[in-house]
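Structure first, sequence second, as always.
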């Protein structure tokens, strides 16, 4: 079954395409140490997947100017990108699903809270840039997940209605954003940040332990059920 040109897959990156959580944790921990601020695993879990301005506000206080927030965020991201250069691998099942969706006629986009430079680095390191017709990053949004803005912008750039979009996510906030935008959502648990029951409660249509468990046909059927 080939898919019409109006069917779109929108991918989160951290925790969905790749597992870079430990690299992010170490980068934030290094920055917090330099600032003389505490930073715990619980702090990381509470903020992971959000936009840097929101993370900095929560971790380090809201008294910083916009420029100071931008500078702090860039200091953290420089550390992250330097560490990522040593090697980042796609999670199980990702490459075959990307290729299968492309073959079936899906267009694909990235919808992420990460800075554009991070996304471009990950796509280059994993050799996946050619799969994506649009990349929506932190710089394109004013509001982070669970606000649906990032996914709405991705759909707008590809000129498709939300009902023809399937979002791939790993986080509760991302699932909530997908549902708030009127899109379907597949949640993957490989990195293990969120239990399956919380992802389902947030609105995920399908929850899998790894994308190896998901076929292109499964995604097509998800869209077909709503179309019918």
């Amino acid at each position: 079954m080939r898919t019409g040109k109006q069917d779109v897959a929108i991918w989160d990156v951290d925790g969905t395409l790749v597992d870079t959580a430990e690299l992010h944790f170490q980068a934030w921990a290094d920055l917090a140490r330099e600032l003389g601020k505490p930073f715990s695993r619980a702090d990381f879990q509470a903020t992971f997947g959000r936009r840097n301005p929101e993370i900095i506000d929560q971790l380090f206080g809201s008294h910083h100017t916009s420029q100071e927030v931008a500078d702090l965020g860039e200091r953290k991201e420089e550390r992250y990108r330097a560490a990522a250069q040593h090697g980042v691998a796609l999670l199980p099942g990702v490459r075959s699903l990307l290729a299968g969706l492309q073959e079936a006629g899906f267009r694909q986009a990235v919808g992420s809270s990460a800075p554009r430079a991070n996304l471009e680095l990950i796509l280059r390191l994993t050799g996946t840039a050619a799969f994506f017709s649009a990349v929506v990053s932190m710089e394109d949004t004013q509001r982070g997940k669970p606000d649906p803005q990032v996914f709405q912008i991705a759909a707008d750039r590809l000129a498709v209605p939300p009902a023809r979009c399937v979002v791939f996510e790993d986080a509760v906030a991302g699932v909530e954003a997908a549902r708030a935008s009127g899109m379907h959502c597949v949640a993957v648990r490989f990195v293990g940040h969120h239990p399956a029951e919380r992802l389902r409660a947030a609105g995920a249509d399908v929850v899998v332990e790894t994308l190896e468990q998901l076929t292109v046909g499964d995604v097509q059927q998800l869209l077909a059920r709503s179309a019918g």
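Margin note: The mean pLDDT is 93.
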